[in-house]
Amino acid sequence: MIPLNSSFPTDNHGWAELLPARRASSRLTGNHRVPWVVVGAGITGLACARRLAELHPDAEILLLDARCVGQAASGRNSGFVVATSQFPGGVVADQVENYRRVNRINQAGLELLSQQVEANTIDCQWQRQGFYHTAADSVALREHTHYLHYLDTLEIEHRVLDRAILSEHLGTEVYQAGIHIADGALMQPAALVRGLADSLPANVRLHEQSPVLGIGMGTPLTLSLDQAQVKTDRLVLATNYESGKLGFLQSYLVGSTLAGSFTRRLTPAELASLGSLEEWGAISLHGGGATVRLTRDHRISIRNTAEYHGSRLLSDSELLTRQAIHREAFDRRFPQLSEVPFEFAWSGVEGISRNGTNFFGRQHDNIYLAGGYNGSGVSRGTAFGTAIADYASGESSATVSDCLASAPARWMPPRPLLDIAAFFQVRSRFKGVGLDR
Ligand SMILES: Cc1cc2nc3c(=O)[nH]c(=O)nc-3n(C[C@H](O)[C@H](O)[C@H](O)COP(=O)(O)OP(=O)(O)OC[C@H]3O[C@@H](n4cnc5c(N)ncnc54)[C@H](O)[C@@H]3O)c2cc1C
Fold this sequence. Notes:
The protein is an alpha/beta fold. It has helices spanning 43-55, 73-76, 96-119, 138-153, 163-170, 189-198, 268-272, 316-333, 378-392, 398-404, 417-428; strands at 30-39, 61-64, 80-81, 131-135, 158-162, 177-181, 185-186, 204-207, 212-216, 221-225, 228-237, 254-263, 280-284, 291-294, 300-307, 342-352, 359-364, 367-371. The two termini are 27 Å apart.
């Protein structure tokens, strides 16, 4: 683990490890006076900075990140750009409007990202052909029934798949049932955020490896960095589960650490054993189940661990122990590939709240925040980031209204009780996971 700064550690693992080296933008030094600062250059902060630049073409937008672009959750996720969220359990009649609201936000984010990828020719293995939701064991099979009812109720285009078709498409006999949702995209997350960062409008100035260490309240606000100070009129925090380090949401948002592995590139014969598709993604219908992908560069990735680990990445030795869990799940799905080694492993930290809600709005005079998407933040983070720029600029939109309607978060106790509660909350997601892990 590289101690970039004692509070913002990082490592070299993740989807970025599969890409060529990238030169980061410079650290911020000196004194600055700007109208707008966005802290956090993940998917939320990048979307926010882009939108602020459109709304205020003559203003300089300063975008700061503690790490390099691609090193946080936005560059380490599984690469599913979701249009339709899954809500576990049966359809609850008085929640149908809420399901629609969340899916409108997802859809708005997916459309924005699609446009940005296309307009800026971002090379990130973007493929908008939907993906699979799969069930191998009894709890997930129950969710399969619930999900079908939900999709029918909301009139969302999908296809029901049986074991034989799944085996033909994905090359595994493990799944008993599945659903293919027509809309949704797959991508290489580190390549996506790098591409978004490299195509920001000219009036956005990005500085990486520039942690904001404190915020002085007042007018203007004063941000303290190691070798810099910034005075600004307005501040947007896109700092996910690390917002607490700046004094916000400590009792509402924590990090859950997920880990996965990639195989080496498959040979043509190994690929042929996987069925008919060149590229696919499968999300388990069980919340603790694996996400599995055949990537465009012919690797299989499998992510099936999640734990409360103090909102930190796993060390190399910890990753190795999780890899045994990835291996077991991989061999069960693809016995024909049991000789294929894993080449990379990675972990990432997602922001979770106690009741699975998201955060959007004003936190303090001239301080706004968006984030915390409980494992589904690519499309949603894009929509939230764009909408928080509108909201902080005094603009209204349908997406702003949808984001503002997020349920209030439930309080979590302070540490050390928080650690215990978070440990059990994350662990509970594996109840009944069985063969879906
Ligand atoms: C393993 C894994 C798999 C996932 N799979 C999916 C998936 O397939 N689909 C999906 O939709 N979602 C997925 N997610 C969730 C998704 O990645 C996140 O919800 C989303 O990326 C959050 O984006 P963000 O910009 O809000 O936060 P982040 O990406 O966490 O970015 C926040 C940024 O703020 C910076 N920062 C924090 N504090 C400071 C500070 N004080 N000063 C300067 N910078 C600061 C951090 O360095 C970081 O770069 C997954 C997450 C993980 C970890």
